[in-house]
């Protein structure tokens, strides 16, 4: 067994042991308090954004994965460029309106605050995101990618969608 795998397994054991010890500590042991003011809770959590999706999805992992948690900002008029994902991605739109164009059929979907999207994986799922609005789009994103991946996405060639036509149809529909 290589040293890297041994270190990973030992790290997992240490983390698992610490989690069990902490869990047992929460349940049975009084914990000495550090110098913390009374208005600071010992454990806290803040929801940065939340969204709803009806897209069915499974997360499949054969082997170790990197988990990335990102805040992405798409400025007005900017796009992500055509790309596909090398691993699973779940995104929550926190603010702004994000327009997604599917490269397979040039269909357009818009997502606003409180909505989520689940991106498909692989080179047959080319798509692009555009901010057609006047305010930045803020997304919170979780990517689960292979450890060998250097980025969560790969640039892809233009699939031939007429972006001006697609975005103006969507804009025309909004005006109605």
Task: Please provide a written account of the structure.
The chain is of the alpha+beta class and about 180 residues long. Among the domains are: about 1-30; about 65-160, Jelly Rolls, CATH 2.60.120. It has two helices and nine strands; from the N terminus they run H-E-E-E-E-E-E-E-E-E-H. It has a four-stranded antiparallel β-sheet with strand order 1-8-3-6, with no helix packed on it. A three-stranded antiparallel β-sheet has the order 5-4-7, with helices on one face. It has a two-stranded antiparallel ribbon with strand order 2-9. Strand 4 and strand 5 form a beta hairpin. The protein is globular. The chain starts with a helix and ends with a helix.
Helix content: 10-25%
CATH fold label of the domain at 65-158: Jelly Rolls
Q: How does the helix and strand content classify structurally?
A: alpha+beta
What is the alpha-carbon Rg in Å? Answer: 21 Å
CATH architecture label of the domain at 65-158: Sandwich
Instruction: Note the main sheet.
Output: 4 strands, antiparallel
CATH homologous superfamily classification of the domain at 65-158? Jelly Rolls
Based on Cα principal axes, name the global outline: globular
Total DSSP helices:
2
What is the CATH C-level name of the domain at 65-158?
Answer: Mainly Beta
Termini separation comes to 64 Å
Q: Give the DSSP E fraction (strand runs of 2 or more residues).
A: 25-35%
Question: Residue ranges: pLDDT <50 for 5 or more in a row?
Answer: 1-29, 169-176
Order of helices and strands: HEEEEEEEEEH
Work out the number of β strands: 9
The strands making up the biggest β-sheet line up spatially as 1-8-3-6
Mean pLDDT: 78
């Amino acid at each position: 067994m290589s040293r890297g795998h041994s270190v990973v397994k030992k790290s997992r054991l240490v983390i698992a042991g610490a989690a069990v010890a902490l869990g047992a500590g929460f349940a049975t042991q009084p914990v000495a308090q550090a110098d913390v003011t009374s208005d600071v809770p010992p454990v806290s959590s803040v929801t940065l954004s939340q969204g709803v999706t009806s897209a069915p999805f499974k997360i499949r992992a054969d082997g170790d994965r990197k988990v990335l948690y990102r805040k992405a900002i798409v400025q007005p008029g900017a796009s992500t460029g055509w790309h596909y994902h090398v691993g699973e991605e779940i995104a929550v739109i926190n603010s702004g309106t994000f327009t997604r164009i599917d490269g397979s059929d040039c269909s357009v979907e818009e997502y606003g605050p409180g909505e989520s999207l689940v991106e498909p994986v692989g080179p047959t799922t080319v798509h692009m995101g555009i901010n057609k609005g006047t305010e930045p789009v803020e997304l919170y994103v979780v990517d689960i990618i292979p450890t060998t991946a250097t980025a969560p996405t790969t640039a892809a060639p233009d699939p031939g969608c007429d972006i001006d036509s697609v975005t103006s149809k969507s804009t025309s529909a909004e005006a109605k």
